[in-house]
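Support request, please re-run this one:
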Amino acid sequence: MSSTKPPAGCFPRVLVLVFVVLVLWGLAGLVEYFVPAVAFGLQHPGFPAGTQFIHFASLLTTGAIFLGGYGARWRHTPFATVLMFAVLATICFIETVDFGAFGGGPTGFVPMGAEYVTYVGLSIYLFRSSAMRCRFDP
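Re-run finished. Output below.
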């Protein structure tokens, strides 16, 4: 690896912030899940308890994998993060189709589609951007 690195720009910092938010959202949802007296309003009344747990545990795991990998410069971070995007996309599909997330019906597929497009865009960035390749280059 050469000693000159391309300028990373601000997007990697924005990406780190996004994953910090995922960790905090997941933690808050799990606290609310396990301690119902603590009410942040994150639990969806139409979702079964198991779905709630998987939802928030997956958010926490996704954020933790990216942040830990980013900090450690773990070369498998993009792969592991995209794998977790697939988990989140699957959960989103189940919540939308089976439990009427985003208002249910056909309109529920619009936010689900936006979520999917976000995952695809972030996945492309993780694998194709020079900043991420430089960050995770073995």
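Residues 11-36+45-136 form one domain. The CA atoms of residues 16 and 117 lie 19 Å apart.
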